[in-house]
Amino acid sequence: MQYVPEEISAGLASHEMAYRAVKEALIAASESATIFPVVLGHGSDPQNSYAIKSSAVSDLAGLKVGSYWPGNEAKGMPRHNSIIFLFDQETGRIGAAVEAGQLNAYRTAAADAVAADCLARSDASTLAIFGAGHQAEYEVWALARIRKLDRVLVVTRNVKKGEAFVAALREEGLAAVLADAEVACRGADIIVTATPATAPLFDTDWVQPGTHVVSMGSDSVGKQELPPELFSKAKLFCDLPVQSRVIGEFQHASEETQLTAIGDVLSGRANGRESDQEITIFDSSGLSVQDLFVAKAVLALLNENNASQEPFDEDDS
């Protein structure tokens, strides 16, 4: 079994690598992948939770275990952790185990960037980001790769954390400010919600024509970030309709609501944005096939790096 520890996978991860792998995965999700129902569980303390996501595609099969231990923050440790297991297709044994705490952050942000690249207006330049936690930073920089962001409006209940986040973005050259929810929504071309919310974060009327909206935080039953009234005013997209209706943002949509898999847009089987006045929504509930493809990409980079190293020669000792 090939084991890739966190420090190695994190060192190999990048927004560019994750974008390529996740785009391929989202197309596969609509064409050839089998994606199994998500298993949700918790630790001995019910506040500690985990999810098991699994899938199979032509040359890959495996699963990811993603955990959320909120008490880790007080210990100076990440609250989110992930590990991806790839099966050896010949034997059924685990062929590779890739620790993926930071890799998962790149992968999640990449999915939103891939969707935004074909759904957000080409001139979109103002981003409103709800949340100032660990994932928010990855979301901002993934989107900054595919659109020229002139402003970032940060909305958060934790002012201290928000100020630190804004300062970090400014230090890297982005014009970021704290804003309230209404001001941010009314001024944004792209809205991203990256929170653990269980109720809408803003009002439908605040979202302007032409806005692209991303719900990233809704990934289990009961979570909610967007006002359902917005659904009837927008074109709705997601990573996988059947999963989005169960654990994603569209668990709050009616059964008749039409959802389009983003993979169908990427492969040309469905239309994305069709006018600059449309509001588009992408629900990113997170797919196992994305994890398999980013793990495959990490293994390829690792093996490539190992192959490029000169072999040890005893005569040089």
TrEMBL record:
- Judging by the UniProt lineage, the source's domain of life is Bacteria
Q: What is this protein called?
A: Ornithine cyclodeaminase
Q: Which organism is it from?
A: Cohaesibacter gelatinilyticus
What Pfam family is a match, any one? OCD_Mu_crystall
GO terms under cellular component: cytoplasm
Tell me its family: Belongs to the ornithine cyclodeaminase/mu-crystallin family.
